[in-house]
Amino acid sequence: MTMKLNLRRGAVALAAGAALLASSISAQAETFRMASLGQASPTTVFSIAVSQILKNELGYATQLSTGSPATRQTVEAANGQLDLFVTAVSINSYLRDGTRMYKDLANAPELFGNIRSIMNYPLGAYHGIVWADSGIENMSDIAGKKVFVGPPASAGRTVIEQVISGVTEFKADEDFETVNLDWASAEQAFQDRQVDVYFVPTPIPSSELQQLSALGKFRVLGIPDDKLETDGIKAASNVPGRAFDFLEPGTYGGQVNEEPVRMVSSIVGLGTHKELPEDVVYNITKAIFENQEELVGAAKWMSIITPENALNQMNAPLHPGALKYYREVGIEVPEDLVPPEAQ
Question: Dihedral (C-alpha) 7, 13, 16, 21: value to the nearest 10 degrees?
């Protein structure tokens, strides 16, 4: 009798333990690791808004980390270490082809095969910002100055150095001093005047630049007409996901530019890895687009994030869950964006 009772108790305990484990696994499955760029980056504004939507609509929790370069995020996602990350058209092409920052990564094409797209949206233009009283009126004046050109090994640094070279023929750490910080630290260093020139990708209009207006007058450095055919500018702009944007005079109260400023702009997106369940990514995609008013409430520039625009210049396959949503709402999906597992 005692043995039977002990066995019964053991079975009950085992069942309870199994139920607890299942509950724990289920809870973990609804918590997603997410990353964005710097704290003031549009990718972080987007990610915070998305996190709130996923929590309110689906009960999904996100663990959001900021400050990691998109080049690193892509590799981490491909290795299953991130569930939602900042993908970029240019970075996708570098990883797929094993070039630029991935040239020494032997399994780069294999890693590219592990990432999946959910949607694309504009990162914004690469603004080169200086304080109006700094004496810097164009890029040629940055000689000998402390310049933040993006975090080390980031795709942004590559673009910015190409733009500077194309306009001035200056070389980093020869003609000007590069400042090695992450995006958030660089913003603070510029505000504290520890950095002379602060390059950052941000939309037009930008809440970050609007906030700068409260601290003082500033100038944005641009690309002159006569530099468009230089090797540097061609290298920065003739890449998938790149274009030119213009900042008009008077966009911000503290802006002193009297002529339109031409800058290189870039497209990024929300990506994941191929192992995330189809129903989860379908739910995420649907929730974001069905609550677009919350995105716009966070930042007006996010009004451009719609199903009709979400595949713009995309060059990594969609996740099957996202593919299902786009087809459901009548979006024509190019064949090269259909993932192998959905063909």
Answer: -110
Quick one: tokens of 294? 């919350």
Report the CATH number that the domain containing residue 177 is assigned in CATH.
3.40.190.10
pLDDT at 67: 86
Q: Which amino acid is at 170?
A: F
Cα 324 to Cα 7, 305, 320, 342: the distances in Å are: 48, 18, 6, 10
**How far apart are the C-alpha atoms of 308 and 112, rounded to whole Å?**
25
Identify the CA nearest to 336 among candidates 78, 83, 103, 92.
Answer: 92
Domains in the chain: how many in total?
Answer: 2
Rounded-to-integer distance, Cα 291 and Cα 60, Å: 15
Domain boundary among 237, 267, 297: 267
Could you tell me if 251 and 306 lie in one domain? no
pLDDT at 137: 97
Q: Which pTM does this prediction carry?
A: 0.78
